[in-house]
């Protein structure tokens, strides 16, 4: 029995709470800024792309609109239904294949390897997160690139320190509120660094996602202007030490043997 978190019960809430507002806008802005330089020119050969745990499929659809071939996977049938409807509205169904299954079963559902694999905000929902990067590497071509995000436990702890939630931080095991969109297995950057090394991969680029937005309790000045918030999030998302305050950390990874 698969014990990983399935968002069938929260698909609409996820759509509204995360991607219906500034949080989702910041996330997509940082991810696209990091991914876009990896894409070939329009007249070059389209990429073969795998989006694991694609959720609502925004990036998959955007990539398909550029002519790339995308395989979309998610464990949630509800999420995939929303993504498929969006893809149909954008006229890109012919560029997307759909795979409804746990990621652990994905190797039986697809053939070949990919130029680019996306796996965003998945690892922190897994019952057994440690093998994930090794598993993802098996889907990559030798020169392939992995775009990987994880929910940053340091950010979670810092936010609760600011808000005085000390009792939560004193718990031996972190337990989120039932029905919360906060994952039950937030990840320390030190863990991910270890997993990346064990998978013989290296970091090509590194960004924080929402490095200050989630800490703001009173909106003053530019924090009340969404486009200014996005601009400053992008500006500070790759700056030390601010990037490590990101609610999520985004890594662009490649094989250590990839000389490109």
Question: How would you describe this protein?
Answer:
With 260 residues, the chain is α/β, with parallel strands linked by helices. It has a single domain (7-255), classed as Rossmann fold. The chain contains 9 helices and 7 strands. The protein has helices at residues 11-17, 22-35, 58-65, 77-90, 132-137, 153-162, 166-170, 189-198, 226-236; strands at 48-52, 69-74, 96-100, 114-119, 140-151, 201-209, 248-255. The protein has a 7-stranded mixed β-sheet, sandwiched between helices. The longest helix is centred in the first third of the chain and has 14 residues, at 22-35. 35% of the residues are buried.
Summarize the structure.
This protein is an alpha/beta fold and 260 residues long. It has 9 helices and 7 strands; from the N terminus they run H-H-E-H-E-H-E-E-H-E-H-H-H-E-H-E.
